[in-house]
Specification:
Distance between the termini: 29 Å
Structural class: alpha/beta
Number of strands: 8
Number of helices: 10
Largest sheet: 8 strands, mixed
Shape: globular
Helix content: 25-40%
Order of helices and strands: HEEHEHEHEHHHHHEEHE
Radius of gyration: 19 Å
Length: about 300
């Protein structure tokens, strides 16, 4: 039975690879003593420590940031890290990101920038919240058009629709109740007032303020379908090589990607994931083994 960490890191020879972990905060999956890993975040460590100073769930002293992926591209952030460290720049073998992808304002560009720093056989390991069992339960699932609007606008902050959908529908959801299918939308406790939601949206529109929300809302099947469309249209060069469905009474699924230049193989890998995800069933996933392993050309 694989642990969460094993699902995300199995098959990576951490001691002999160069990796990057995005948004590790205080609890990185890949520790510094495990191998050469670069911690990447949207701002510096001091700012993060100040932000989380009063958060009992975060130990600010353990926050480390090696490269800042903010206004610059990820490739520029990595180059800056190597310039400051005085060591020769190296391409990245793998990227790990746990509960990060749903926060990025421009999903397509985020994936493309990750692709730009990876070696030809580079891998990406993602842990993604399953909206059915999180505070996103009442939100609408992300569509291709939502993602494309953000991509065409080169969004640097969450767009108005994302902010309103999040603030108007974020609700306290009990995971076990959601798995039983007993969430009552009418009685779910909303986390924001209507006036508060409008205030957040106006602030972003008028002042360009960044509000940290879940921009994108996925189930395993919807994520696979979206990635299949992006792959079919040449916007992403990743195939799904391993997929762990959401475990009973848990709220996340894990998808492991690899660069794949063969469009047919890419698209088929996402079709397989979509067909195998338990989209229409509340039956528990009791195995910790991957639903699929895909051999790529």
């Amino acid at each position: 039975m694989k642990s969460r960490k094993e699902k995300l890191l199995d098959g990576l020879d951490l001691a002999n690879l160069v990796g990057a972990e995005i948004g590790p905060l205080h609890n990185a999956l890949v520790k510094k003593n495990a191998g050469h890993v670069i911690y990447i975040d949207h701002t510096d460590a001091e700012t993060l420590r100040n932000h989380y100073a009063n958060d009992s769930k975060v130990n600010p002293a353990d926050i480390c940031v090696d490269a800042i992926w903010g206004k610059h591209s990820l490739k520029e952030a990595i180059a800056s890290y190597y310039a400051k460290s005085g060591s020769a720049a190296q391409d990245i073998d793998y990227v790990v990101a746990s509960h990060v992808i749903e926060h990025v304002p421009d999903l397509v560009t985020w994936l493309q920038e990750i692709r730009s720093i990876l070696k030809a056989d580079g891998q990406v390991r993602l842990a993604i919240p399953d909206k059915r069992f999180t505070f996103d339960h009442l939100r609408r699932t992300t569509h291709l058009t939502d993602v494309m609007v953000a991509y065409l606008n080169k969004a640097r902050i969450p767009n108005t629709q994302c902010l309103l959908d999040f603030c108007l529908n974020e609700s306290l959801i009990d995971v076990a109740t959601a798995w039983e299918g007993n969430v009552d939308p009418g009685s779910a406790k909303k986390q924001h007032t209507f006036e508060g939601a409008l205030s957040v949206a106006r602030d972003a529109l008028q002042n360009g303020t960044y509000h940290d929300v879940h921009c994108w809302v996925f189930t395993p099947a919807s994520f696979a379908a979206l990635m299949g469309e992006l792959s079919r249209n040449g916007l992403v060069d990743f195939a799904c090589v391993e997929f762990f469905d959401t475990i009973h009474n848990d709220n996340e699924f894990i998808v492991n990607l690899r660069i794949c230049d063969n469009a047919f193989d890419r698209q088929n890998s996402w079709h397989r994931m979509a067909s195998q995800a338990q989209e229409h069933s509340r039956a528990p996933v009791v195995s910790n083994e991957p639903v699929q392993e895909v051999a790529l050309q």
